[in-house]
Every structure is written in C-alpha cells, then in structure tokens.
Design goal:
Bound molecules: fe (ii) ion
Number of helices: 16
Strand order of the largest sheet: 1-2-5
Number of domains: 2
Distance between the termini: 40 Å
Strand content: 5-15%
CATH class of the largest domain: Mainly Alpha
C-alpha cells in the first residue's frame, strides 16, 4: 500500500535517488504536516544548494505519485546505468546511489511485499549492488556499516547483502546462487518490518537473551515475507528458502530446527548473525568477530567461520 493523501496515492523514494541538477520527468512531492506539497515540477531539477539544504535538514524521503512509479523506475534505471558505467563518478557516489536504490526497494517491499513491482525493484537493486561490489572492490567499506539515513533493519539488510555476496564469491558459490543470495539478503528481515511495533523491538535483543516466548514471536518473521510471495510465478524457490532459513544454525536451534543447510544458506545465516551482533549488541566489527569465534562455534561450520575471519581481515572490515 502506498501512502494516502490529497485523494491521490503517493510512494516514498529516497531523496538520494533524485539527486541535484538532474531533470525529472515526473513531479516530486514532500510530505509536510500531513499534506503532500509539490516540490519539483516535471521537467525541472533541484539546484545544488536546495539539495544540500534538504540533506542538512535530514530530509530523507521525497514522494512521487503512485501512478508515476514506472516513469520513476526508468528514470532510476538510466541514472544508475550511467553512474555505474562512468569513470568520472567516484566510488563513494556510486555506493551512495546504489544504497539509496536498495533502501527505496526495501521501503517498497515493506509497503507492498506481494507486488511484482516491489520484487522487480529489489531484484534490480540486488543486481546493481553486485555490480558495485564486484566492479569496485573498495566499495564494500562504503556500503557496509555506512551511517546512512536508514533505520537499523534497513541498514542491516544492506550490510548482510553486501558482505554475504562478496564472501560467497570467495567460497566459489556459483554466480546464479550469488544472485539469489543478494535478493534474499535484501529481503530477509522484511518480516520484522511487518511485525507489530512492540514485537519489532525483539530485533534489538541479542539472540542469547531471547526467551522461549520471545523466540516464538520473533522467529515468525522468517515466514513474514514468504507468505506474500510463495506462489508467485516471478520468485525463485531458492530465494524463498534462503529467507526461510536465515535464522537456522547447524545445531538445530533455529525456527525450522534444520541441521543441514546449503552453502549459500549457511553463508546468509552466518553473516546475518555477525551483522546483528554489531547492531544489537552495539559492538565493533572486530568484537563481533571475536564473539562469533567463541559463542557461535558449532552453530556454523568451523572452516566457514575461519574463512570468514580471513575474509573480513582481507577486506579491511576488521
Ligand atoms: Fe532475521
Ligand atoms: Fe537479519
């Protein structure tokens, strides 16, 4: 569902996807005191100074009319294509734009998880994230742990996607599976965003502090987005299974009590556990790694954990 107002429906888009000095071919709105105000007319562009001011005011979202979504999509597609192909654009700028696209896709997925448009946007964002990460080796550290405009779950989803696809590549996971992994990682915790607000707080509780009752409620999020997508012809079963298994451990303590996972599933579960420690236990990437090597032994394959440590060191994350 898009947001309702002024009799029309509106969809949020991250302001970084609009950018200064780039003409838009659809009107752009801001949401102020429950009213959508036209901020940019179709055919116009934001001047740099005005854009900087908005960023300074910590305004993160513009709105477009829902009827303009397709137009916005093609605007964003060509903007990304141009940016990722450009030799002049810095890696920081490329990372910022790809991050903004993934944030917009996750917002969209949260609002309307069952729609093909939301899924398409997430697939595109996942593809561009792969391009960014694999074509610009130094981009991982721009994307991972970036203090962006997003809430913790959105940032966590982007972190997990970026880290897991690059780690998967070192583990010789096939390209097609890396592709599924990138999409699943962006969507894996949409289920948390769909939970009631008081239940969402469980996201911030460290896993070893979750009570049996907490787990019952919290682990429901693994099915959260799946139930909207399961029978859709445009989604691959491997993506569904990756999402369903992201809280599993090799000791069978996850919601499905699986003790055997495929390599991509285990990578997603391990990276999810690692990044969540950083976010929920509020510790450094280095301390989270130490915790992984002590507290999570047995939950993941020892060789995989050791390789992950080598990988994080090599990438300069720790
Ligand atoms: Fe999760
Ligand atoms: Fe997660």
């Amino acid at each position: 569902m898009s947001q309702q107002g002024n009799e029309k429906t509106y969809t949020p888009v991250r302001i970084t996807t609009i950018k200064a000095n780039r003409e838009v071919n659809f009107p752009v709105f801001i949401h102020f005191k429950n009213v959508y105000l036209e901020y940019l007319k179709s055919g116009s562009q934001i001047e740099s100074d005005k854009y900087k001011k908005l960023r300074k005011q910590k305004i993160t979202k513009f709105y477009i009319q829902s009827s303009d979504e397709k137009t916005y999509q093609s605007f964003l597609d060509s903007f990304l294509e141009e940016t990722l192909n450009s030799k002049e654009v810095s890696v920081e700028e490329k990372s910022e734009l790809v991050t903004a696209q993934t944030e917009t896709a996750i917002d969209r997925m949260k609002d309307d998880p069952g729609s093909e448009e939301s899924y398409d946007m997430t697939r595109k964002a996942a593809k561009n994230l792969q391009r960014l990460i694999f074509e610009n080796p130094e981009s991982l550290n721009n994307v991972f742990g970036a203090e962006g405009d997003s809430d913790a779950i959105v940032q966590h989803s982007i972190n997990v996607a970026a880290l897991s696809i690059k780690f998967a590549k070192t583990q010789k996971v096939e390209e097609e599976d890396i592709d599924f992994l990138s999409t699943a990682a962006l969507m894996h915790d949409i289920g948390v965003l769909k939970m009631e607000e008081n239940h969402q707080e469980l996201f911030n509780k460290p896993r070893n502090e979750l009570t049996i009752e907490d787990k019952k409620v919290y682990y429901d999020h693994c099915k959260g987005v799946v139930k909207h997508l399961k029978d859709k012809p445009y989604i691959n079963d491997k993506v569904i299974e990756l999402i369903e298994c992201h809280e599993e451990t090799l000791q069978g303590s996850g919601p499905l009590q699986k003790m055997k996972l495929t390599k991509p599933q285990e990578i997603l579960a391990l990276v999810n556990c690692y990044d969540k420690k950083i976010i929920t236990n509020k510790i450094s990437p280095n301390d989270a790694l130490k915790e992984m090597m002590i507290d999570e032994l047995g939950n993941y394959n020892l060789d995989l954990l050791k390789d992950f440590k080598v990988f994080l060191k090599k990438e300069g994350v720790v």
